[in-house]
Amino acid sequence: MNSQLTLPAPAKLNRMLHIVGRREDGFHSLQTLFQFIDLNDHLTLAARDDGDIQLTQAVSGVNHDDNLIVRAARLLQRHSGTLLGATLAVNKQLPMGGGLGGGSSNAATTLVGLNHLWQLNLSLEELARLGLQLGADVPVFVHGHSAWAEGIGEQLTSVTLDTPWFVIIHPGISVSTPGIFQDPQLTRDSRPITMARALQGGAPEWRNDCEAVVKERYPPIAEALDWLAQHAPSRLTGTGACVFAAFESQQTAQAIAQLASPHWSTWVARGLNTSPLHDALGYL
Ligand SMILES: C[C@@](CO)(OP(=O)(O)O)[C@H](O)COP(=O)(O)OP(=O)(O)OC[C@H]1O[C@@H](n2ccc(N)nc2=O)[C@H](O)[C@@H]1O
Ligand SMILES: Nc1ncnc2c1ncn2[C@@H]1O[C@H](COP(=O)(O)OP(=O)(O)O)[C@@H](O)[C@H]1O
Hints:
- There is one protein chain.
- The protein is built from ten helices and ten strands.
- By secondary structure, it is α+β, with helices and mostly antiparallel strands.
- The protein has two domains: 4-159, 2-Layer Sandwich (Ribosomal Protein S5, domain 2); 165-272, GHMP kinase, C-terminal domain (Alpha-Beta Plaits).
- It is globular, with a radius of gyration of 19 Å.
- The model has no long low-confidence stretch (mean pLDDT 95).
- The structure holds 4-diphosphocytidyl-2-C-methyl-D-erythritol 2-phosphate and adenosine-5'-diphosphate (ADP).
- Adenosine-5'-diphosphate is lined by residues 59, 62, 67-69, 96-104, 106, 177, 238.
- Keywords: ATP-binding, Isoprene biosynthesis, Kinase, Nucleotide-binding, Transferase.
- Its EC number is 2.7.1.148.
- It comes from Vreelandella sulfidaeris.
- ATP binds at residues 95-105.
């Protein structure tokens, strides 16, 4: 058995995101298309015999015990009853609170990776159910395929999306997800659409219902969206702060990225239909 693994934790984009209601527990019912991109954090996971869970280096602004990597490892340890522990390290590339799902993806890679290292043989469905306790976005990263998601993001149907080159811009601020969901001005009554309709793509369905409120509260995000819209239809991912636009070629995407303000962080990344995590583990 491998006693150490290094695995990717990819980012996601919400190609569209509609808010179709609010549940009694305050969470919002969504309809969204998730797609992975080839932009990754990397986690190194090693099993240990003493039952301890240790993340070796700090992630800035997050306490050790609050880190989603540590929380995911402890959750799986409790759930499975294993006596093994883990030493964990993360190489962070993805901006935090950027709508790219980095924290959720780190949690999913921890669950999937430790399931292997600890030889627990839990199914992806079981790991996704566990992951939902950590965040609404964790299940799609466990699932590992582009997906149409409903509920709070946990009812997943695999789909195949186009795989353009994206320009992704982080305007250097972070958005409070709870703050956006609590905003009285948020559109939360979009009419539910069918998956087939969503997959047809294009306006008006490929919009993000959080965008109006986010633009109002965070002018730098409005600025990035408006700048990118000069080149191709631009959209917010999740509750932001990242915005993105799709291009047919890597060359065009790179040319646009080079024009972006040096005050922003800008990436060019390819859309993917399968998660690099699952490719690495040979699930497919
Ligand atoms: C809206 C999405 C779309 O991908 O945005 P991003 O976070 O990626 O930007 C996600 O579903 C977010 O998922 P995640 O970031 O894991 O959020 P969570 O930790 O589960 O929730 C943070 C808070 O946002 C609110 N929340 C979250 C999800 C949801 N469907 N309805 C909500 O009302 C709740 O107040 C919750 O306490
Ligand atoms: N390993 C982690 N990586 C990133 N964020 C983490 C991690 N553990 C906990 N967090 C917390 O989760 C929040 C959301 O992070 P992230 O998933 O990157 O953003 P988003 O949900 O906007 O895509 C962060 O602001 C941070 O406080």
